[in-house]
């Protein structure tokens, strides 16, 4: 691989600088807020799914005990 030409290197640095300048604090904050909301939603969905499974097992066990006591 050959050594990059100074103008090519300057072009890459300028491109990175323009991307960094385009991202304002507001847009970064919005992106962080969206990611946080998505992670919160996923965490809540997982928690609810696990709670429903746990409550279903408890209900099944309770019904089995009632059947044993009645029969």
Q: Quick gist of this model?
A:
The protein has 71 residues and is mainly α.
Give structural attributes.
single chain; 71 residues; mainly alpha; 2 helices
Task: Please write out the topology.
Layout: H1 6-22, H2 25-70
H-E string: HH
Distance between the termini: 82 Å
Whole-number count of domains: 1
Shape: rod-shaped
Please explain how this structure is put together.
- With 71 residues, this protein is mainly alpha-helical.
- The protein has one domain.
- The chain is built from two helices and no strands.
- The model has no long low-confidence stretch (mean pLDDT 89).
């Amino acid at each position: 691989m050959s050594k990059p030409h100074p103008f090519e290197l300057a072009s890459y640095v300028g491109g990175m600088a323009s991307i960094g300048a385009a991202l304002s604090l507001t847009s970064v904050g919005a992106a962080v807020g969206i990611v946080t909301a998505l992670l919160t939603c996923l965490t809540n969905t997982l928690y609810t799914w696990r709670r429903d499974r746990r409550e279903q097992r408890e209900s099944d066990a309770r019904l089995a005990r009632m059947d044993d006591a009645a029969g």
